[in-house]
């Protein structure tokens, strides 16, 4: 049986699509969102009484989508995942193109506003934390993989310096960094 997404989800999807069309600006209006979602402006206002509520809803929705994409990449429950497995999930999501130009624009614009940055910080801090790794070299490998994946996301999203010919080789290097770190992490636990 086909189930329609809730109006709230349809509105968030629509606002996200609008952010992607506009070069990524989160200058989202009630009117444009309503039109894109196929609902009335009143329908948008019912779920999001203020523009700030709508923008915060979109940021939270996008951060949640990123979190879910990374959870899909883990082969173990999150609570049991090592830092290397979490970073590898992030690299996998970036490599698969699951983080788009609109995701990047929403992320970048939200950083200037602490309320908008909070959903991203909640998601990314739990995935990209490496503080529990005792070995400084292993932590550095994991941070390098994370930061290089950030760069790949930016390159893919903007088309600037995108490593078209070398993209897979870059991804393989990032994955290798996480595998090397994973092996060392397991040795530390033994």
From TrEMBL:
Pfam families: TetR_C_28, TetR_N
Portion annotated as DNA-binding: 29-48
Top-level lineage group: Bacteria
GO terms for MF: DNA-binding transcription factor activity; transcription cis-regulatory region binding
Keywords (A to Z) from UniProt: DNA-binding, Transcription, Transcription regulation
Gene3D superfamilies named in the record: Tetracycline Repressor, domain 2
HTH tetR-type domain ranges (all copies): 5-66
Official protein name in the record: TetR/AcrR family transcriptional regulator
Record organism: Kribbella antibiotica
């Amino acid at each position: 049986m086909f189930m329609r997404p809730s109006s709230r989800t349809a509105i968030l999807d629509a606002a996200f699509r609008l952010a992607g069309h506009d070069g990524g600006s989160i200058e989202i209006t009630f009117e444009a969102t309503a039109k894109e979602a196929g609902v009335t402006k009143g329908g948008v206002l019912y779920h999001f009484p203020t523009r700030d509520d709508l923008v915060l809803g979109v940021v939270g929705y996008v951060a949640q989508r990123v979190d879910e994409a990374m959870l899909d990449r883990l082969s173990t429950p999150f609570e049991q995942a090592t830092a290397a497995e979490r970073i590898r999930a992030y690299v996998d999501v970036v490599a698969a193109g699951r983080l788009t130009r609109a995701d990047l624009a929403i992320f970048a614009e939200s950083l200037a506003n602490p309320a908008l940055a909070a959903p991203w910080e909640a998601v990314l801090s739990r995935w990209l934390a490496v503080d529990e790794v005792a070995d400084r070299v292993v932590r550095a490998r994991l941070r390098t993989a994370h930061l290089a994946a950030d760069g790949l996301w930016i390159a893919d999203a903007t088309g600037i310096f995108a490593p078209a010919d070398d993209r897979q080789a870059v991804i393989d290097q990032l994955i290798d960094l996480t595998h090397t770190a994973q092996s060392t992490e397991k040795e530390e636990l033994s």
